[in-house]
Amino acid sequence: MSVVIEAQNISKRFFLGERNRTTFLEEWTARTRDVVPFLLRRGKTGSHHGHRREFWAVREVSFEVYQGQTLAIIGENGAGKSTLLKILSRITQPTTGEVKVYGRLASLLEVGTGFHGDFSGRDNIYLNGTMLGLSRKEIRSRFDRIVEFSELADFIDVPVKHYSTGMYVRLAFSVAAHLNPEIVILDEVLSVGDTGFQKKCLDRMAEIIREGHAAILVSHAMPVVRRSSQMCLWLSHGRVVMFGSTDEVVDRYEGESAEELEARKGAPSARFVSWKAESRLSSDPHTISTGHEAVTFRFEVELTTAVPEGQLGISFTNAQGLVLFSRHLPLQERQPDQIMVVLTLPSLPLSPGSYSISCTISNGNGSSTVIRGIPELRVTTERTSDGPLGILSLPGSSVRLERVRSQ
Amino acid sequence: MSSVASSPSSLRKPTYVVSAKAWLLSRPVDLWTYRDLFFLLTKRDLLATYKQTVLGPLWFFVQPVFASLVFSVVFGLIVRVSTGSLPFLVFFMTGFITWSLFFNCVNQVSQTFLINRHIFQKIYFPRMIVPLSQITVNVLNFAAQFGVLLFIIGFYNLAGTHIELSYRMIFIPLILLCLTTFALGLGCLIASWTVRFRDLNMLVGYGLQLLMYASCVFFPESIVPANLRWLVDLNPMAMLILALRSCLFGVEHYVLSLPALLVLVVIAIVGLWSFARTERNFTDTV
Q1: How high is the ipTM of this complex?
Q2: Contact B218, B75 (CB under 8 A)
Q3: How confident is the model at residue B265 (pLDDT cuts 50, 70, 90)?
Q4: What is the CA radius of gyration of chain B?
Q5: Which residue, A1, B13, B39, B103, has most beta carbons within 10 Å?
Q6: What is the three-class DSSP state of B124?
């Protein structure tokens, strides 16, 4: 297997405070502020760069990605994931270290950048495509496929300023999806148009990865990470906590996150213990059969901090991130202890597939914690007539033909 | 793709290397790799200028003629600047379109980072593509205006006012090359500063206006008083405008000023150097 990305000892330093000072006048005031005390205290130790606090967004990160492999990057918000991606894609230079990239890298963070409203969809495909590193010849040979993918053939010669937001994003994504890069960078948030188109995009992504190209995936959804990546890089405060096979890293990430969350001030903390679904038709605790059977979910959660007043929320989300259903339960005067939440539904008429369950605990002042590591819910069906289309699989529904009587 | 699949990694050359030690974020060879982007950006900007206005391309020809007419009245009839054997309109228009080329180049190049920051924060391509394409657009516009100037000269000749063109016209492309290099350098220098100090743009507007008065746009070199000569001697734009008029009409036999040439080269080098430096890290501050 050949290596496609080789990152060695990457660090990136920012200076806090620098970002806000944007006028000449402010710069000079700031300089005088630094220089005057510095001159007065000459000889004494002390930094005259007081306002320029340094901050390492990424610190000594090394990893490799091999061909045909998907690497997931996980970590809390602010762990340095986006900065790392920016370094990989040559947006900004690292402060230390070196990255060698073999092959074309395309990042899908950049959907729709550089579009010009006065120009037609056609012109913008060319402009955006060349910006992303294709030649005009390459675009010409892919043009029809791009247009077909975007489902915008009728509007391709209309200036994009007349497009709806959905059309605009569809066009932009279609260009990005046809770059045929050797390495793809996928950011979690893929809010592309309607659900149908979103699924098409996700399928296209999966296809790119299946074709043997390497991918880097940034995600907070551990089920997605487990399913789609082999290697995992866990970052925290810019440093690598762990780099290894996905199962190992994610297991430890989910195990440790409870203690880590405890450290966060104010937010309640809890750990997921187990959950099971009790329904007549399935014996597997994480699988239910779609239909009109009643189903009872039992969630066991361990509160690791006291919750004087707050609430616990449970929601079901489909693979595209759409929240399908949620319930809240008030919590009062709870001491650290294990609690069992029982949710009974008369039926759960979902289409067959995998759904993630998320559980949130919040306290009165608005800070909340998402409990991680909850296994997915699988919905199966015995009846083949329930097609996979749509979100719901309504029991008892019927469809038939009726003759139209004409006089 | 096939090149990636074969050959062990130790033998392969990386497509690119991002290194803390690298002096340039983008390799100069990428300018060639992304040449199609350059063409399309140039085409886009050319068309965009014309698409926006009702009169469209006509503006481009009307504006310099109109401005030159105003200058003819102010400087020719009221201030009574001597323009030698040349009609006021031709004299002022030559200076004006040359100055406009320079001003537009500097002005647009100096805003490269600020205007395109949303693109630059997300996509990699050699940033220099943007200023280069803006300069190309301005040179093409200049060529069109120059055509109008030649047309007006032809009109004068038909009307009986004899205006002789010099064979030295063939040096004009060389002058334009120097002019755009200077504009690119100065624009890049300002672009790098405006990333840190947004209010600098205001200052630049005034600065360029002052420079215009020191650049012999509306008057011949001969009327510059001796105690202000250094302003002309050190000013690359004065040198270039005088050289252009000299090459076009064979008037004002102008010798290239060495100090001005030196200023031009220094500004171009420092400008490109700061641009490369800014390119590496500017997304951190903008």
Answers
A1: 0.81
A2: yes
A3: very high
A4: 22
A5: B103
A6: coil
Q: How close does chain B come to A62, measured CA to CA in Å?
A: 13
> B9 contacts in A (CB within 8 Å)?
2-3, 6, 102
Per the CB < 8 Å rule, is B283 touching A86?
yes
Over residues A93-114, the pLDDT tens digits come to: 999 999 999 988 887 665 666 7
Mean pLDDT calculated for residue range B182-204 = 88
| CATH code linked to domain A264-380 | 2.70.50.60
Task: Give the residue on B whose Cα is nearest the Cα of A127.
Answer: B40
- Considering only CB atoms, A23 lies closest to which of B3, B121, B199, namely B199
Q: Where are the alpha helices (DSSP H) in A102-187?
A: 121-131, 136-150, 165-177
**How much is the pTM?**
0.74
Query: Contact, A145 vs A177, CB < 8 A?
Result: no
Q: At what angle do helices A165-177 and A195-210 cross, to 10 degrees?
A: 10
- Name the CATH topology of A104-233: Rossmann fold (3.40.50)
Strand pairing report for A368-371 and A353-363: antiparallel
CB B247 within 8 A of CB B175: yes
- The stretches in chain A having pLDDT less than 50 are 19, 42-50, 265
B221 alpha-carbon distance from chain centroid: 22
- B37 CB neighbours in chain A (<8 A) are 127, 130-131
Domain boundaries, chain B: 26-285
Give the closest-approach CA distance of B54 to chain A in angstroms. 15
In chain B, the residue whose alpha carbon lies closest to the alpha carbon of A112 is B119
> Domain coordinates of chain A in residue numbers?
104-233, 264-380
Structure tokens at A323: 């929240």
Beta bridge partners, A340, equal A300
**Which distant-in-sequence residues (6+ apart) come within 8 Å of A397 by Cβ?**
none
pLDDT of B216 strictly over 60: yes
| CB atoms B125 and A118 under 8 Å | no
| Summary mean pLDDT of chain B | 85
Characterize the bridge pairing of strands A307-317 and A353-363.
antiparallel
**Cβ contact, residue pair B123, A22, below 8 Å:** no
* CA–CA separation, A233 and A63 (whole Å): 8
